[in-house]
Design a protein that fits this description.
heterodimer; A: mainly beta; four-stranded antiparallel sheet; B: mainly beta; six-stranded mixed sheet; five-stranded antiparallel sheet; 56% strand; globular
């Protein structure tokens, strides 16, 4: 099956700093990538959808200036958490799809802890 | 919120028993998918059932879908300790987005 990687797998940062998380499709071209956030013992909540070469579409309640998403190539999307605060601590998961309506392949997730 | 709901929230059974999880959703769907997530790990895709299908099997998994009731169930037969995980349903609509359910935490005791 298609493989999606995320880097880093975990990160600890100080409050006020920015953190970048990468999502890569390793063996296919991802026209669409999705970013999810998951708090402990809760479900995945979609944050935004990004299409290669265009601006991301954010879900209601997600601050686009705080969670910057870039999908500059067909194999890479990045999520930057700007001026991170402890409440941003969460498990961030990306997924990728090669065509609209096709199966999403999920990355292994990135655990962010903001001190 | 459009998020689906699952029940039970948590389920504890002995190895060899069957586990049934239920999922209810709110909108029209193209398909419904079930995923497994081990603690702190990524998602594993288990099975997809399309809106025009009523039942699907994959190994020890059996999924049903009732679009009139907007509900689905996942049955794991002859459970094993390795089945211990959280299970999520996710519905896909015309927007290509996946809306995840609240999840069921399954614990299978040896």
């Amino acid at each position: 099956g298609a493989v999606v990687s995320q880097h880093p797998s975990w990160v600890i940062c100080k409050s006020g700093t920015s953190v970048k998380i990468e999502c890569r499709s390793l063996d296919f071209q991802a026209t669409t990538m999705f970013w999810y956030r998951q708090f402990p013992k809760q479900s995945l909540m979609l944050m935004a959808t990004s299409n290669e070469g265009s601006k991301a579409t954010y879900e209601q309640g997600v601050e686009k200036d705080k969670f910057l998403i870039n999908h500059a190539s067909l194999t890479l999307s990045t999520l930057t958490v700007t001026s991170a605060h402890p409440e941003d601590s969460s498990f961030y998961i990306c997924s990728a799809s090669d065509l609209p309506g096709r199966e999403q392949f999920f990355g292994p997730g990135t655990r962010l802890t903001v001190l | 919120s459009q998020q689906g709901e699952e029940d039970p929230q948590a389920l504890s059974i002995q190895e060899g028993e069957n586990a049934t999880m239920n999922c209810s959703y709110k909108t029209s769907i193209n398909n419904l998918q079930w995923y497994r997530q081990n603690s702190g790990r990524g998602l594993v895709h288990l099975i997809l059932i399309r809106s025009n299908e009523r039942e699907k099997h994959s190994g020890r998994l059996r999924v049903t879908l009732d679009t009139s009731k907007k509900s689905s169930s996942l049955l794991i037969t002859a459970s094993r300790a390795a089945d211990t995980a959280s299970y999520f349903c996710a519905t896909e609509t015309n927007t290509d987005k996946l809306i995840f359910g609240t999840g069921t935490r399954l614990q299978v005791f040896p």
